[in-house]
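Form 7-S
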Amino acid sequence: MSLAMNIYGVRAIYIYEMARTGRTLFQSIVSPVISTSLYFIVFGAAIGTRITQIQGVSYGSFIVPGLIMLTLLTQSVTNAAFGIYFPRFVGTIYELLSAPVSSFEIVLGYVGAAATKSVVLGGIILLTSGLFVPLHVDHPAWMLAFLILTAVSFSLFGFILGLWASSFEKLQIVPLLFLTPLTFLGGTFYPTSVLPPFWRTVTLFNPLVYLISGFRWSFFGIADVDVELSLAMTLLFMAICLTIVWWFFKTGYRLKN
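Output:
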C-alpha cells in the first residue's frame, strides 16, 4: 500500500471549505469582528472606567487575549462541525469515504480549513483590538503557537461534534450551553486570582483556563497557571481529540450508518 499522501484530495477538500467562507463572508468574518468590537465598547465603558489596571496591564488590553480566544474557540468548533455535518446531512459523505482519500487526509482537509479560518479571524481581531487599546506582544512566537494549537485542537473538537450530531440543534447545543459559558468562566474578563480560594480551585477543572492563561502570558508575561502547564493541557486536549477521531473512522461510528 502506498504511503504517499493524496495531496490533490486534501487540496480539493481544503479549497472547497475555504470557498465556503467567501460565500458566508458576513457570518464568518464580519459578524465575529463586530461582536468583539462591541465587547470592547461595552466592557471598556462599564468596567474599564472602574478597573484601570490588572497586574500592571490596562483592563482594555488585559481582555484582548480572552476575547480572541472566545472567538477562536467558537469559530473553530462551528466551522469544523458544520463543514463535516453537511456532507453527512446530504449524503455526499459516502462518496467521500469511497474516494481514494484516507481518513487522515479527510481530517487534514476539513480541520486544516477550519483552523485556517480561525487563525485568520484571530489575526483580524488582534489588529482590530489595536484600534481600541494600546497593545503589545511580549512573546510573538508563543502567541502564534498558542493561536495555531488552539485553533487546530478545537477544530478537531468541532469535527467530532459534526460527526456525532444527528441534527442541527445538537450542532448548536454544545457551543451554546457548554463552550461559551466555560470561556466566560475561564478568565476571559478577569484573572482567576481574584476569585475566592474554593472557586479558584474549581476553575482548574475548566480546560479553557489553561488556554486563555497561556495565550495571555504570550502577550503580557502574566498568567493564572504556569505556561508549561498551559501548553501541556493544550497538547493533551489535542491528543484526546485525535484519538476520538481515529476511533470514529476505525469503527465507522456515525459514518457508515
